[in-house]
Amino acid sequence: MSRREFTKAVYAQIVKRAMLESGEIACEGCGLILGKKRYQVDHTIADALQVDKSRKLTVDDGKLLGLECCHKPKTKQDVKVIAKAKRVEANYLRTNAQSRPIQSPGFPKSEKTAHRSTKAQLPPRQLYQAVDSHPHASTETCRRIER
Ligand SMILES: [Zn+2]
C-alpha cells in the first residue's frame, strides 16, 4: 500500500502548530528555530509500520522537523526499523509454517471401504522374475556369469 500523505489542511495546521508567536517556524524535534531553513512534515510513526492505513492522517500523526537537524536522521532510523520489522515478520511466518504439519483426520470409512480393506492384499507384482525361472538357470555356465 502506498504511503499516505497529509492533506493540505492538516499540513497547514502542523506548520501553524510549529510556528512561534514571532511567526518563526521551529523544529518540533529539537526546538531549533528554522528561519529560512527547509523543513519537512514527518510521519510520527513511520507509515509502513502502521497497520490501519484507511484512517485519515491527522495533525497528531505529523511532526514538523527541520530537514538538517532532525528529519534526515529520523528517516534513516525509520528505514532501519521498517527493515527489522519486515525481517521479524518474515521469520515469524516461516517458522510458523514449519512447526505446523498438516493435521487431518482423514476421510471417514464408509461401510463399503471398511469391507474392502478386510480382504487379504495380493502380493506386490514382481517386476523381475526369480532367477530359478530363468530359462538357463539350470545350466552351470549361466549361473557363473550371473554371479
Ligand atoms: Zn530539529
Give an overview in words.
- This protein has 147 residues and is mainly alpha-helical.
- It has a domain at 8-98.
- The protein is built from four helices and two strands, in the order H-E-E-H-H-H.
- The protein has a two-stranded antiparallel sheet with strand order 1-2.
- The longest helix has 32 residues, at 67-98.
- The protein is rod-shaped and about 105 Å long.
- Bound molecules: zinc ion.
- Zinc ion is lined by residues 27, 29-30, 32, 65-66, 69-70.
- The site of zinc ion has 8 residues, from strand 2 and helix 2.
Give a brief description.
With 147 residues, this protein is mainly alpha-helical. 39% of the residues lie in helices and 7% in strands. The model has no long low-confidence stretch (mean pLDDT 80).
